[in-house]
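Key idea: predict the complex, not the pieces.
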Amino acid sequence: MACILITIDCGRADHLLGDGVPTPSLDAFREEAVTYSRCYSHTNITLPSHRTMLTGLWPSRHGVISNFVDVPLPDESLPSQLAAKGVPRDAFLSTNFLELLLGRRIGDTMDPFFKSLDGSEPFLKAKIHGMKVRMGRRDVRRKAAKTLNLATRWLGGVAPEREPFSLIHLFDAHTPYEAPEGLIEEELSRAAVKVESDRSLKEQLEEKELFCAHPQLRLKEKISIDYHPAVYRAALRYIDAELGRFFVRLKATGHWDRSTIAVTADHGENLGEHGVYCGHQLLFDETIHVPLIVKYPGGANASTTVDFAVGHADMARSLAAHYGLTLAGDGIPLEKLESGRDQFAEHAKRFQASLRRDSACYIRSWRPPPSDGSLRSKLFEQTGWTGKKGPEDLPPLLDAIVEDLEKAEMAAEGVDREVEAQLRGLGYM
Ligand SMILES: [Zn+2]
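Result:
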């Protein structure tokens, strides 16, 4: 039967599993599933995190540690192994950059919607080795309803015994947050947020020394600093409602009972914590602690909660196990875990790494972030050596992991040279 991985971009665990927002659809889903209340992503941005979920490898080990890297999935990855077995698979993603850099490597073809846009205007600008890169049209996104409709239609057309695999990615809770007006109104009212302010958002952020991580927010407007976090919560509620509709329709396709369905997030979101407003920077829990809810075939262990630390690398091996496959990754299948594991995370800009064990968290920064604007010294100061005081062996363990990764020479520099050649070949540089 099917294996369906659903990722809610920027979905914080405390919001989706806790009291952050009402999530009736996910609450009902949890009645049929296992909730992993302490799941951690292994990095803070989208593409590397998704590749970890599909390979079981930490970013430095799978080699993609930025959002601007275009390389094929390795033969050992789950989609590649499924392709070799002839398993139907496809990805339903909500941004064109993720479709271009990942989706078309999972499905057999590029999503027609994104393909129709590709190449007309630049959507992705990046510097690789100081050279400008431009690809496709910028920042095209699709609402959850549309993406889930496409996934439903595709799954409905595949016989359950063919055991299809699909990755579904929902982007509404990523800046600039998007949600129906009615839900935004409800969230503003629930949090008693007065939209208007007598000062610009930029001035309010400066006063609180907050770094705004997304350039598309309305910084010049006289709008309350609480406005965007409320829209973020409304976006999560919209996603929850659409997931509810999706689950009903999925049950009608005959895929539900014996399927593995995992709902998680690629990373979380800072809404003002640790100096970051509306972005996913640094490796604190707001960014790294993600929800993980897994419905196993036959509803095994339904309505239970696992409260020890697990990670996406562990989840990846569980998804592979659904097909009787093994990923030679950094994780252990969730079903085989009887206690928590040390969970490693690395920052996409490679200036931080963290390790979590039980309730302890150790975060190490070894240089300031390279391009985080005027507040970067503050960010560095805050995160220099921090986290909750943990077991004494966490710092040397983290040093050893980082040293090991650096020795493996899987860092961005080496990969970027490969990308550079590919992009040059495609005429993007
Ligand atoms: Zn993301």
